[in-house]
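Lecture 7, part B: from sequences to assemblies.

Below are the input chains for today's worked example.
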Amino acid sequence: MIAQSLFIIILIGAIYLFSKNVGKIRRNILLGKPADRSDNPAQRWKTMALVALGQTKMVKRPLAAVMHFFIYVGFIIINLEVLEIMLDGIFGSHRIFSKPLGGLYDLLIGGFEILALLVFTACVVFLCRRNIAHLKRFSGVEMTAWPKSDANYILTIEILLMTAFLTMNAADHKLQLLNFGHYIKAGSFPVSSFIGPLLPNNAHALEIIERSCWWFHIVGILAFLNYLPYSKHFHILLAFPNTYYSNLHPKGQFTNMASVTNEVKAMLDPSFVPETTGEPGRFGAKDVTDLTWKNLMEAYTCTECGRCTSVCPANQTGKLLSPRKIMMDTRDRITEVGKNIDQHGKDYKDDKSLLDNYISREELWACTTCNACTDACPVNINPLEIITEMRRYVVMEESQAPASLNTMFGNVENNGAPWKYSNADRFNWADE
Amino acid sequence: MTNDQMTTEIKVPTMAAMAAEGKQPEILFWVGCAGSFDERAQKITRDICKILHHVGISYAVLGTEESCTGDPAKRAGNEFLFQMQAMANIQVLDAYEVKKIVTGCPHCFNTIKNEYPGLGGNYEVIHHSQLIQQLIDEGKLKAEGGESFKGKKITYHDPCYLGRGNNVYEAPRAALEILDAELVELKRCKSNGLCCGAGGAQMFKEPEKGTKEINAERMADILEAKATIVAAACPFCMTMLRDGVKHEDKEQEIQVLDIAEITVRANGL
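Predicted structure of the full complex, as structure tokens:
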């Protein structure tokens, strides 16, 4: 009874805390500007099914794709087992699903064990890739101490959870064979039966091990749940809405700014009356709140895999630009803005901004807009849009484009070509 | 007889001249700034005209009425200048009641096709590689009567705004597949293609500080593929790739040719 009450208190507490922190992230995302991504729901569901659920963009790197798939499937399917563990915790039962499911239960538990082993293996491989093989993709200026630790924490926690799960089953299995207490014969144990010999034969010791692992596993899961909002691992949730709200236009198509259209139309036709959009008068993005909610959602979705940066032509040739850094900076800045709101109220402004305090101009100007980063992202994140919005601010609000680009602008404006040729000579090619 | 001497036989029609005669061409050839002014790209422009002429499509160009699409301004963040250019161009295109456009440049192609509709300019837009593919499919273009590419090792560099930008990967390859040549893909190709370094208005500025030039990085792929002809489909890629070849001192071994030039050569136009 005490155990049940304790479990229910921990469960409610964990869910409450998690909802509160997710609510904060949601609020932060909604600090972004509006963007309409409500069109074409059929295409959106399809994109989500393929990219998030089906992980089709992961396959470009087969080893990572297979390992990631183990962890992903393991995570989803083992959740069925977590459901049983929760119900057992609440009702004080033991293996509550075993009776109603009968033979299927054995199959399920056996399946969970194999998945747990695969998750375990994949996490070990991933830790080795990061800490022993030192894959280039996992380093870079933005991969400071915290992002590296974050990745290692996630993998270590998953290894511990799987170890607890398998050890719990091993002890349970032995207790079942001893016909001890309420440990009814249920489940099959293709993996944990190999752990059994390592455990003591004493029934009371086994019971302590079984109970400890049970508690460690479920409290561990609830703690891990509450770690998500502070971690890149939050992608396991946001990958779904983020792909649903994907950009469905061709990648080469940049947004046309409606605010600029109004001004240009008014310039060309003095009788033109612009529709009032009620937007504040800033062109482009200086800070995160100038970006759209979708840009901010993407920042929270990023799991720092670095596929974007590894294919970025600027990054590969030693320039400062790293698309992953653009996303991480955006997330860190919006988190900071959110914290400011929590601490000082919603009208508080610090003297920082995404531009200059986080992302330098040198990074922005190194981009070739080649879309390699957006194509590489397994969850359809678009760092290019943020780069473009910030260029727009630098060019249109500050007039701080590099001098050579200003020359190009002047040429386009005066000669209708980016070079200094007279428009009258434009057709000379036909005479040669 | 060189390619350029041939052009004197072709009179390139302008929209203005055709309109004066009360005629409407089937397709407008949007030449683009590079195609109009860059010496190397001008050759490609003339070759596209030769193809149009050869298959007997009624076409015209805007000549001096054409102006920059605004692409480099837009990628650089100057949305004002882009929209000014776009609206002025749309006025001209609409005045001539243009329905269909073929461009000689992936940047013009992307901008007019994707970004003009939102500003009121709606046209059917294709890149010249798509036109060539169509003509091949219709049997109007073959690879005969001209230079043989037999046994030559040809590779293709995907321009970002044609490939990833608009998912046009097969059309330019179709123009190469009809040649009796050995086609090799670069290590990074199609959606994995590496940028030449010119996009996003980089063409018009010095690159940021780094360890090497992007086109030098791309040259490594080209050298690895051991190709003797690099096919391009974008005038800016053309410049960057040629610079890369020059930098490697491989001008004798490696030619950079546009898809249109290869088609013209293969057909002896």
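Note for the exam: Confidence is low (pLDDT under 50) at residues 1-8 of chain B. Keep this in mind when comparing with the next example.
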